[in-house]
Specification:
Shape: globular
Strand order of the largest sheet: 1-2-3-4-5-6
Strand content: 5-15%
Length: 191
């Protein structure tokens, strides 16, 4: 299944309407740093699905994404596992319109392992020894229905990520690779 999304600045309202009307997009990829806008003050159509880049910058801070989701009825897919931000993870249980995309899993694992400042302190997840551990701990923390794969650009080799996902029990693998995203799309398409 392919669901068309477009990466575009929320400041380009006429272009968004064009893509909706002419190309029947169902969602928008928002990258706050590239467009220099704060997610919590972002005005966008509320009948879309949003994939939002999460980082540690001024514009893409997960706390801004939380505020956006609180004021938005649309489904929000937070890219890059939300950079392992505990506040964002805790909000997922309260806000039913947020899920996490786990791509690029290997890239996030490498940043975690190196102690990169591109991710948050993940000590709340416990000891993590491998990309598989990372994925399992995140799923256990946010819930197995709140993780998808592949809704964001896989910047690394997707086969590496998929080899980790392939180690999961079959029911979890199916949820991440298909069922959870189909549930989001079905809800959107039926609204």
């Amino acid at each position: 299944l392919v669901f068309p999304f477009v990466a575009i600045s929320p400041h380009m309202q006429e272009d968004i309407r064009y893509y909706v009307e002419k190309h029947h997009i169902v969602g928008i990829k928002l990258h706050p740093n590239y467009s220099s806008y704060k997610m919590d003050s972002c005005t966008v159509p509320h009948d879309m699905i949003y994939v939002i880049h999460a980082g540690k910058g001024f514009y893409d801070n997960p706390l801004r994404i939380i505020n956006f989701a609180k004021n938005c009825e649309s489904q929000v897919i937070v890219a890059h596992l939300g950079r392992l931000n505990k506040d964002l993870y805790d909000s997922i249980s309260q806000l039913k319109n947020i899920v996490m995309d786990c791509s690029p899993l290997i890239h996030i694992w490498d940043a975690y392992r190196r102690g990169s400042n591109s991710i948050y302190d993940a000590s709340f997840l416990g000891k993590i020894n491998s990309p598989y551990d990372l994925l399992m701990r995140v799923m256990e923390y946010v819930g197995f229905d709140n993780i998808v794969y592949g809704s964001d650009i896989p910047i690394d080799n997707p086969y590496d990520d998929l080899s980790i996902i392939d180690m999961l029990p079959n029911d979890l693998k199916i949820k991440i690779l298909r069922e959870n995203l189909i549930a989001i799309m079905s809800e959107y398409l039926n609204s």
